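Why do we care about 3D structure at all? Because function follows from shape, and shape follows, mostly, from sequence. That is the central idea of this module. The next example makes it concrete: a single protein chain, its amino acid sequence, and then its structure expressed as tokens.
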Amino acid sequence: MKKTDVFRKRCLSFMTVMAVLLVLSSGLAFAASGGGHDAPTKKWEVTDSARVLNFAVLAVAMVWLFRKFGVPALNSRIQGIKDDLDELEARKNAANEDLAQYRKQLKLLDNEAEKIIAEYTRQGEDAKERILKETSSAADKLKEQATRNVEYEFARAKQQLQKDVVEKALIKAEQIIKARISENDQDRLVDEYLEKVVAA
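And the structure:
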């Protein structure tokens, strides 16, 4: 049973007893007064001292009942409220401790997230530098290969050009020589060549 229910029952009991005492004291006062206006006044005369005595008995009974039932009920209710407040304070303290713990964990998570982001950023920068170096190295190799190819093709073209020039020059020289040399000159040149070969 809850503390509030106990308090309500005690208060209800106290109020019921007070009501019964009030009715009884009213009945006694009525009986003491002679039962009404038509009653004979000689038989029961109510004096001020009887009324005071009646009030005193009622007041003592009410004080006794209040001490017997009301004070423990109030004390119990006060103690229940204190217990509830203590429990609420303990819950509040526990909630504050949990909140502080959660804030600490969130701060640790924030720090961890910053570390992870910094690590990924560093890895990204390293990968970028590595890719740039590899690209630069590959570009240098391609450039060097292209230069070698150009030089080779140029040398080959130069040789071919020289060959073509020499062939054309020989053909042209042969044509010029044929046009200028007579048969006597040819015989003389052949004789000179044979003499050189024999002398050698």
